Write the structure tokens for this entry.
Amino acid sequence: MNRFTASAVALLAMAALVAPAGAASKGPAAGKAVHVGVIADVTGGAGVYGTPQKNAYELANDDIKSGKLDAGGANLTFDVQDAATDGAQVVNLMQKFTTDGSTAIVIGPTLSGEAFKAFPLAARANFPAMGTSTTAEGVTAIGPTIYRDALAESQVIPTTVARTHAKWKYKTAAIIYGDDNAFTKTDYDVFKRELEKAGVQVVDTETFHIKDTDFQAALTRIDSKKPDVIAIGGLFPEATKIIAQAGKLGIKAHMMGGNGLNSPEMYAVAGPAAQGVVVGAAWALAGKYPSNERFVKSYTAKYGKAPDQFAAQSYAAAEIVAYLVAHGAVTKDEMLSGLRGVRVIQTVLGPLGFDANRDVKSSPVILEIVKNGFAYFH
Amino acid sequence: MFAQQLLNGLFLGAVYALFAVGYTLVFGVLDILNLAHAAIFTAAAFAAFSLVAAGVPLPAAFLLAAIFAGLLGILLDRVAFAPLRKRNAGTLVPLISSIGVAIIIGAVLRAVYGVDERHFTLGGLDTAPAIHLGPITFTTVELTIFLAAIALMVVLSWILRSTTLGRRIRAVADDRIAAALLGVDLEKTIAATFFIASSLGGAAGVLTGLEYNSVTLDMGGPIELKGLAVIILGGMGSITGAVIGGFILGAVETFAVAYGLSPWRDALVFGVMFVLLVARPTGLFGKRALRQA
Amino acid sequence: MPGALVDFYAKHSRLIDQIGVNALLALSLSVSLQAGQLALAQAAFMGIAAYVSAILAMQAHWPLIATILAAVLVSTVVAALLALPVRRLRGVFLAIATIGFGEIVRVFANNLSITGGAEGLSGIPNDATTPVIYGSLAVVAFVLFALSRTKFALAVTLVREDEHAARGVGVDVGMVRTLSLALGGAIAGLGGALYAHASFFLTPTDFGFARMEQILVWCVIGGVTSPLGAVIGAALLSILPEVIRFLSDWREVTNGVILLLVILFAPGGLSSLWRRGAIRVR
């Protein structure tokens, strides 16, 4: 051991003594303030999705302070602003963040429709922005500064259909989807394409509106067509009721869905009818990545319930930004070049990177609802 | 399939009707549209959820939540409508103040309960096997809800027809000034009207929460506009009109889907309503109906 | 412009544009209300025009002004046609029939492929600049002012205050109602076309009942029969959510409380306040 390494080891040992357990490293941005603007629908119709997002960023703020999330010693904060599920407020917030001179990157908004209104502002200002739940087709194509860490339905559903088809060997399917929402409409497009590709005949298609509660008329009609499998293009508030009501009507067909169904609500609400439902998703509550286990534990401790995928994808965005900051990104331009140089970052979603279209590169997980939880579908 | 769809429509229509009769009672007596009715519907469902969670037996929780909704209705009137009534502010202005109250109720519920869906602990009632009768399938919960909704509407009709209070309410609806001249205490009668109307709306909220075992902040959203359509289609303040309108709505919604028109469901609902209104410009039953109740 | 103003505009231009568009929408409803018509289809007229102008710009590559004129023409015709079947409806019955019409339009926007359905239309040219929006508002204000000095305005007031009396003095009530609805449709269409060209993206939910409720609230808060009141109502309520942003968790409830207090304090709308003031001055 030469003198240089010896002193380095000594320094490291001192650092370990001084810093609290799990302390952040001292990166090039140490001591600098980095402000991240977060746009989330905490109130209004999408509050059920925006609130877990807000929770995740507040947890990230705690974790950065305590050193559990490494931002290289920078004073990194996520400033969550509520857009109240109002497109006008989303746009105003995007303008505020991109012009205030202190924000380094914007994360959010919550809905794809909002993203199409707000991301063009970021793209025009050459300002980095990242979606965590805006999975509609074309969001990242808005501009070369727009990223997303959320697997789109088109990245998740093909595997879901392939895996279930291999196991269940179904010949006919029905699709039920929300026709007034970009996310659920995309579900329909992808399910239809993939089912037909697999040689499955789609015998019935039914639609509903977001926030509907009664699906019995549609399910009764689906039942009369006797499909082998029902594909649900929806989000969990509606999907739980679809599954429970199908159970009540005695419908025996297999059921499956995409990212929108990846919520603890699914087994908590839909009851026994939900068992066996297959969910293709971007993240698993039980994922064995180190930061995920810590995230699930501390989120559950802080908020009294397990996180859902909205929270996980938001926390992953926080991890990505923290990683970039730890590597020296402080300004919006540094953030942008950092994003462009990303190879692989370890997050709660697993290791992820970005492809040439700035969409996330990671693998979907196929889950099956079992009693009181999700298991991997085999 | 037809029998099952008819049953689906009836079950749906019963709750719509119950929501609408309370809505229309205020409309008939005061000539105002109360856009906070859906917020009270939601608040009552949350109240029942809390009561059941605290161990209160379900029937008692249902009753207490309805009474809570009734009291909330009286408070609503005092805060949002009474001050405007004194100033003869017309019909449009109270609409806006009721929107204000609805926003406040929603914000308070969100602060207290958060955004997550809540569920009743029904102790097995919700997992009881469905009943199969020939071509139709239903659950005990659904049947109970249907009967409860019908019973409440019968009770309302009896109150309006056969009690002193009912006669006073009808007199105020008929002609407020004449009723006052005849010695009817206007403010007391209006308070009673709000209590009855809101407790019925609250009961509809609890029943809707039970039917889908789901209580959410925006559960009143879809029913607000449809309920409005129902009461206006039914005719100014007509209880019969609201009940029939509720069942028409349930049937149109169900059969639109049953015949493969689910993407056009709401267009059909409002299309039917539009045509009926054009044919009968004062609604199906007009204002007379409440007076005769 | 001085530097501070340039900076202010750079930070708030979107909100400033929203205020202009919202003022047009409020004016469009105000025109119907002045004729005593509680016709609540403004969101639908706005939506129809927004789609027409966006589609013409994106697919036919029409210039902005042409798409706006075409959109206004379409929404005016639709409003005039809607006036026919609803001519016997009054008050809340008219309100709910026109809301129903709005819902039907929304369902069509959701199901047609040319509108992009629920996935919406994205990438609309963003060329409705602040001068275009406020220029349009100025034109509308001028037209309304000019109209207010004509016999038509007198007829409108008569129809609102007493339809029978209006008939008695020979006013063609049906024509007045149709014209005022069509004029409202034209202004809403202008607002809708500008909305499309200021938003990058359209989706059917932009034109639903929630939007209609919003427009109605602006008008009533401003003062039902006052065009200036409608504009002020729209402006203040568009700014409000951003002004009270610092309240964070208390913002939603404060929003409701302010709405309630304003309407209780000034049931005649904000315009009634300065009218009262004016009377006192005299």
Summary: Chain B has a mean pLDDT of 90. Residues 2-114+134-220 of chain B form one domain. Chain B touches chain C through 44 residues (CB under 8 Å). Residues 2-30 of chain B form the longest helix (29 residues).
